[in-house]
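User: I'm new to structure prediction. If I give you an amino acid sequence, what do you actually give back? Let's try with this one:
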Amino acid sequence: QVQLVESGGGLVQPGGSLRLSCARSGSIFSIYAMGWYRQAPGKQRELVASISSGGRTNYADSVKGRFTISRDNAKNTVYLQMNNLKPEDTAVYSCNARRGLATGGIEDSWGQGTQVTVSS
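Assistant: Good question. You get back a string of structure tokens that encode the predicted 3D arrangement of the chain. For your 120 residues, that looks like this:
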């Protein structure tokens, strides 16, 4: 198993910034990619940003230029820097780790989620 512990959520005003952290432990080997997802009440979960084991990044169109995903392998931590936050960014943000298994299958691990609220 991959254990993921998230932190950094909270209440922020529009235009403000916030940095989310996702600390990994347990079975951290053979991870193909890490990502941040979000889900607002009544809406589907959506991918916000991802980073592959090779360092390639992808972003949702709605956050390009504002959000940055990064990692610090020495600290076993993935970050999501969120700048110029908008009310529509309000959601529960969850960290995801995708790992290839010896059986040939894929394992997805999830953090507990952290609430981000953008409001004046």
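You can read the tokens as a compact description of the fold. Here is one thing that stands out. The mean pLDDT is 94.
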